[in-house]
Design a protein that fits this description.
two-stranded antiparallel sheet; 5 helices; alpha/beta; 174 residues
């Protein structure tokens, strides 16, 4: 399915300049015209507060502020202009504990390096085609961490009423 991304704005937070250029070229090929970048999470959050972004793509390993800390701040900082922004976290590490850590801070999608254009496009399409409700609890705010809808589950639901949020979505079909 092809999408019209011409009005979508993306913030790339990555400290490796060649990777930034690669992601920019892929996003441009997808039709995205509004692309900004920052070198670390601190610079990224500052830019995020100044401009409106529909998607944040961030690397995990950066100094002084990494992508996990940035995501936590995007989701929980009162100065964050949109706590519901989709976040794609990129990393060269794919261990289960890292995926779970990313999920537990509110990352929307996880992208393992090296990746290709199809991998990145699929993550963006996943955000559009299967948006997840946001959940707020005492120690978590972010997209619902439960991806599977197990029809055979007969136990007690932990959340009786998930938080339903309508987020303006510019990522419409062409």
């Amino acid at each position: 399915m092809a999408y019209d991304f011409s009005d979508v704005s993306v913030l790339i937070v990555e400290d490796n300049l060649p990777m930034v250029e690669l992601i920019k070229s892929l996003l441009t090929a997808f039709g995205i015209k509004k692309i900004s970048s920052a070198r670390d999470g601190e610079e990224g959050f500052t830019l995020y507060r100044k401009e409106t972004f529909d998607l944040v793509i961030t690397d995990w390993m950066m100094k002084p502020v990494d992508g996990i800390s940035l995501t936590r701040r995007l989701r929980n900082d009162p100065l964050s202009p949109n706590q519901y922004v989709p976040v794609i976290l990129m990393t060269g590490f794919s261990e289960k504990r890292r995926v779970m850590q990313a999920r537990d801070v509110g990352v929307t999608e996880f992208l393992v390096k090296p990746f290709n254009a199809r991998d990145l496009y699929r993550r963006i399409a996943q955000i559009i085609e299967k948006p997840r409700q946001f959940v707020r609890s005492e120690d978590f705010f972010g997209p619902d961490r439960r991806r599977k809808n197990d029809k055979g589950y007969g136990g007690r639901e932990r959340r009786t009423e998930p938080v339903m949020i309508n987020v303006r979505n510019k990522m419409g079909e062409a």
